[in-house]
Each structure stands twice: as C-alpha cells, then as structure tokens.
C-alpha cells in the first residue's frame, strides 16, 4: 500500500508538471516565472505530503525523513502545519488550492476532465494512506495471535510424530520435519 500511495501521488505530480510545461505562453517572462514557481511549490508540497504520510504510518522522528526545500511556503503556514495532527489533509488541501490557482492564472491550460485525473490520483493516494493507517494503528488481536502460536506448536509436535512413523530413514525424517515446520514458522 505504501507503493500505491507513492505511485498515485507521483502520477498526479508528474501529470501536473507535464500540464504546466505545455503552457502556450512560455515566451512571456511573467508566465515563465509563474510556471517555474508553480513547479517548485508543487514538488515541495508533494515531498512534504509523502514525508508526512510516512511519519504517520511509521514510528520515525522528524529528522529521519527530509523534506525538500520548504522556502516556497510562508512561515505562518508552516507554523500552523506544525500544530495540526493530520498534516497530510492540510497539505493535500494546499496542493488542490495551488492547482486551482494555477488553472485560474493560466499556468495550466488543460481541459477539466483531464485535470480531474490529477485530483482523483491525489484522493486515491489519501484513501490508500487511510487504509495503511488502519493496518498500522489497529493491533493484531491477542487471542488470535495466541491461538495461532498454539496451533503451530501442535503442528510441530504432530509433524515430528508423523515423520517418525511414516519416514524410514532418520535423515529424511529430519529434513521433512525441518522443511514443513520451517515453512509454517517463516
């Protein structure tokens, strides 16, 4: 699921970069600057999004994962982001607002049905992240865990007994028991 999250967000980001690179007004220096700023901020936000997602599902410190340059984001927004529990939702909102602003300013000249694909990929990444959080946060039931261990121990004992009765040579009996029980415990 982590790869699916990364894949969805990477596809959305790369599509948006491609859409902005196809701007018809590239000769205009002001538009060229806006396109460049859009790309830089989008990459920065995508990096922050994925890093925040990994921090949510893994037990990592702030220093373990580096975010690309955050200079495109004002300090007040960064302070607000630090106070939020679910940073990914805030960053996704920032990305969506950035996309809408880019379309309004003409940075991206792409038909709405094509652009909606990027929004869908961003949201599917969030759905996959939500599924990941469920797996990471909900513990495996203790009684079920204990029952599995008891069943594996019983299986080991029964395999040893069956191997002693069925297999004639000691070497092959040990090999069979080792292979069968090893595969179940692995």
Features:
186 residues, mainly alpha, 7 helices, 77% helix
Could you characterize what this model shows?
The protein is mainly alpha-helical. The chain has 7 helices and no strands. Helix 2 packs antiparallel against helix 4. The protein is elongated and about 85 Å long. The relative contact order is 0.12. The model has no long low-confidence stretch (mean pLDDT about 85).
Give the topology string: H per helix, E per strand: HHHHHHH
What profile does the largest beta sheet have? none
Could you tell me the strand content as a percent range? under 5%
Specify the helix fraction band: over 70%
Q: Mind sketching the topology for me?
A:
Blueprint: H1 2-21, H2 29-57, H3 75-82, H4 87-105, H5 112-137, H6 142-166, H7 170-185
Helix pairs in contact: 1-2, 1-5, 2-4, 4-5, 6-7
In a nutshell, what does this entry contain?
Helix content is 77%, strand content 0%. By secondary structure, it is mainly alpha-helical. Helix 1 (2-21) packs antiparallel against helix 5 and helix 6 (142-166) packs antiparallel against helix 7 (170-185).
């Amino acid at each position: 699921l982590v790869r699916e999250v990364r894949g969805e967000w990477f596809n959305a980001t790369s599509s948006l970069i491609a859409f902005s690179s196809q701007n018809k007004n590239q000769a205009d220096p002001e538009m060229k600057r806006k396109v460049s700023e859009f790309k830089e901020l989008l990459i920065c936000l995508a990096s922050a999004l994925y890093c925040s997602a990994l921090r949510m599902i893994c037990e990592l410190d702030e220093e373990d994962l580096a975010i690309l340059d955050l200079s495109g984001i004002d300090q007040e927004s960064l302070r607000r982001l630090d106070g939020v529990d679910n940073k990914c939702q805030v960053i996704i909102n920032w990305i969506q607002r950035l996309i809408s602003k880019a379309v309004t300013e003409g940075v991206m000249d792409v038909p709405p049905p094509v652009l909606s694909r990027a929004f869908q990929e961003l949201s599917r990444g969030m759905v996959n992240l939500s599924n990941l959080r469920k797996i990471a946060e909900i513990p495996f039931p203790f009684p079920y865990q204990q029952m599995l261990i008891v069943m594996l121990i019983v299986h080991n004992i029964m395999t040893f007994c069956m191997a002693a009765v069925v297999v004639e040579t000691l070497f092959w009996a040990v090999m069979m028991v080792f292979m069968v029980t090893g595969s179940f415990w692995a």
